[in-house]
Amino acid sequence: MGATTRALFLSCFHGGGGFEVSHRLALRPRYPSMPRRPKGAAAAGGSGGRGGGDLEAAAVAGNEEEEKVATFSVSGMTCAACAGSVEKAVKRLPGIHDAAVDVLGGRAQVVFYPAFVSENRITEAIEDVGFEAKLIDEEVMEKNILLCRLHIKGMACKYCTSTVEFVLQTSPGVQRASVALATEEAEIRYDRRIVSATQLIQAVEETGFEAILVTTGEDRSRIDLKMDGVLDKRSLMMLESSVQALPGVENVKFDTELNKVTILYKPDQTGPRDLIEVIKSATSGLVNASIYLEADGRDQHRYREIKRYRQSFLWSLIFTIPIFLTSMVFMYIPWLKAGLEKKVFNMMSTGELLRWILSTPVQFVIGRKFYAGAYKAMCRGSPNMDVLIALGTNTAYFYSVYSVLRAATSDNYMSTDFFETSSMLISFILLGKYLEILAKGKTSEAIAKLMDLAPETATLLMYDHEGNVVGENEIDSRLIQKNDVIKVVPGGKVASDGFVIWGQSHVNESMITGESRPVAKRKGDTVIGGTVNENGVLHVRATFVGSESALAQIVRLVESAQMAKAPVQKFADQISRVFVPLVILFSLLTWLAWFAAGRLHSYPNSWIPPSMDSFQLALQFGISVMVIACPCALGLATPTAVMVATGVGASRGVLIKGGHALESAQKVDCIVFDKTGTLTIGKPVVVDTRLLKNMVLREFYDYAAAAEINSEHPLAKAIVEHAKKLHLEENHIWPEARDFISVTGHGVMAEVSDKSVIVGNKSFMLSSYINIPLEASEILIEEEEKARTGVIVAMDREVVGIISVSDPIKPNAHEVISYLKSMNVESIMVTGDNWGTANAIGKEVGIEKIIAEAKPEQKAEMVKELQLSGRTVAMVGDGINDSPALVSADVGLAIGAGTDVAIEAADIVLMKSNLEDVITAIDLSRKTFFRIRMNYVWALGYNVIGIPIAAGVLFPSTGFRLPPWVAGAAMAASSVSVVCWSLLLRYYKSPKIVGS
């Protein structure tokens, strides 16, 4: 797996998948096109009694003008997985000839037959998978689309995220904005010619939240440097001009309060060490620069937030515990009760005055964040959790102040205060937020573990002008620049992606690729940052550093997956949009209903506690409803589970591209497997050669290898590798092949020296009008029975030999198929190989339904047919020829050692290339959505049960009422329970397969 996997990760993560600026969309799909016309589909507006054949005949009888091209603007796509989802949605429709998606340009171009499908239906299909689509009449100009990420402080609930999303989405130049409450981050795709990252930050801050730039998404790197030394205005200007003059530096920003400078630069032209050296030189050594440890800022922000909530909670306890004791406990101790009921002024008692004094700092000092949040929310016209808390606690506090002041000015008014309600509410909510932030911080531990794979330091080699090593220097690994040469000692970690220029060793790449065996490395081989050198010393030239490294790209992929919303989250979003206003209205109606009931004497006075009147009782019901109904848990139900699941999957070598892939995977009831490289090892070897003509074996293989050398097919590579063994020289030069033609899944033909050579399967020979002798047919049948592939070699239109190639079946393939069957998942094998080999492999692994000799479009067509029969289909493949089926399937699973095209087309990447991970992906998705469903039970259960009880539904029959502070505790508990329930996924264990 080694070389293929290394090439995969360095090409896929560096060059592909939605991180580069897109160019003008050509009418060429990223994946091979689908069948021209659907089978058995009814034409739009056509008669219902005509079969698919008649319909196709009618279409063919028409003119070519029936084929129409339409371009759609699509907002909401962020990566290759999104583009794959759009292509899937479109290509599943009947009458789609071709579709091409420009992921960063935000558009899709579709070739279709209007007799089968309409433009409106295509638009609806795109919108059904979670993207916004609009038909446009002409192609838009090329856009400089970037993906920006912001960290947002101050979001309290789902209402906050909806507000920020709306503001960003309506900003000019923004194509799509996604805000996650669990990560407190926003991901924005924008046109940098229309809007800048700074303007996006301003847009967020105008809504009352604080935004911190994580990345602009531009093709440049960012570094934060700490400056130690005395800086005045003049030296700052000199520093700025000196740094700005460096080639590749695009922006310099100083923060004098933190003594920090933020520099955006192009890594191809400069690097962090150059920047540090310039700062030092420009100030004659008076100012030194170093890596600013809080360059990311997200973890530090979380730690500060945890500390702030902990301190606030502890301070609130200092005041709230005496309030609780004086109102709930001491009243049952006679001598303390007498002291608390002693009148201070008129009817105002000592206990009331004490509670008023103690509750005031809790209400206005410790609870000021709720005031600030509520004020900002009301200013932007979007009430949130802070508004409910502020309304509830203020109502309790100010009514208590009114009641106490009235008692102080009256000789006979008996006051009833709710100071304990407001203070205890704030205390419980602070405790809940503290526990919630603690728990949410653990949801991203998988990303932290991935980032920790990179070593802290690296050994930089110094060279003289003649290229000789003259010294070593240990530096911070974040200071590595492109083309640096890094020394990696045995047992050390590779500090950056690059290639070996000296030395030999074995490198453990399991933490990145999943390859369990150490991979041999020598001069010219690529290495991946974060992997472990086991023996021998390597000198590695850095090629991809910082955000360009494979490790950083994997982290970014997981982060993007965690930001992506699962379709099921739409349910919570729809509820959250109207939830808070409805709760406020319901609270008011509850208070009015109970107050009116008391005035009309529709319930006995015996129900009312002796110390309360009907107004106070109604007020308590209204406050309880307002507090218990906060929608925090609802907004956390889905994203926390998706975050944990994608992180857990990544740690087990299963890269899940977002919530949509998770949701689709848990519904899978049918899996279509490719054979070569999926069910088999994917590295076929030549096991036998049968010559039908008199010729030298080496000469025979020279011709075959010369024709196959240009093919990427695994069988071709096996033939070439076997041919190399027949030559003593290491780099044998094959005869020149002219007029090379490759037919995917069938074979190749070329002119080699003085012969016309054709290498391929039986059907390829027949289609080339080459007669297959009886002896060759018997050999092919014999090889098929042995589960071998017989490759026919013809020269000058005459069969001269058959090469037998065997591709070993992957370990535990039979056990995996058997386990999937126990999960009620049917397994089907679709392969381009011959029927004999396919049947033999299928029998060995336990697959009964087999489709052989299938072309790429036939694989996709079969997936569509299964979907039309009501099945939820997953496709597992590794090659370019599998990408149409991967796109068409509900869930595409790409083998990690496969091609980057297949990986881009897939929804889930199995990095370890183990079949067992297919089970892991499906099982993890099922368990995740079980958690999500339970989260909704927790979140909605609190509200469905709690709101009626808080409103007093049990009061007429039992006299039971829910105190507001208890309602606050329940509200806080709902959020904590949802997050903790999601966190249990961290202990997920893959199913144990018998024999593994």
Automatic annotation (TrEMBL):
Keywords for the protein's UniProt record, in alphabetical order: ATP-binding, Copper, Ion transport, Membrane, Metal-binding, Nucleotide-binding, Repeat, Translocase, Transmembrane, Transmembrane helix, Transport
Gene Ontology cellular-component annotations: membrane
Keyword Transmembrane found: yes
SUPFAM superfamilies: Calcium ATPase, transduction domain A, Calcium ATPase, transmembrane domain M, HAD-like, HMA, heavy metal-associated domain
UniProt xrefs under InterPro entries: ATPase_P-typ_cyto_dom_N, ATPase_P-typ_P_site, ATPase_P-typ_TM_dom_sf, ATPase_P-typ_transduc_dom_A_sf, ATPase_P-type_domA, HAD-like_sf, HAD_sf, Heavy-metal-associated_CS
Molecular function as annotated in GO: ATP binding; metal ion binding; P-type monovalent copper transporter activity
Regions of compositional bias (Gly residues) in chain numbering: 43-54
Domain HMA residues, every copy: 68-134, 146-212, 221-287
Ranges where the record places region Disordered: 30-55
Catalytic activity: Cu(+)(in) + ATP + H2O = Cu(+)(out) + ADP + phosphate + H(+)
Similarity remark: Belongs to the cation transport ATPase (P-type) (TC 3.A.3) family. Type IB subfamily.
This protein's name: P-type Cu(+) transporter
Organism: Urochloa decumbens
High-level lineage: Eukaryota, Viridiplantae, Streptophyta, Embryophyta, Tracheophyta
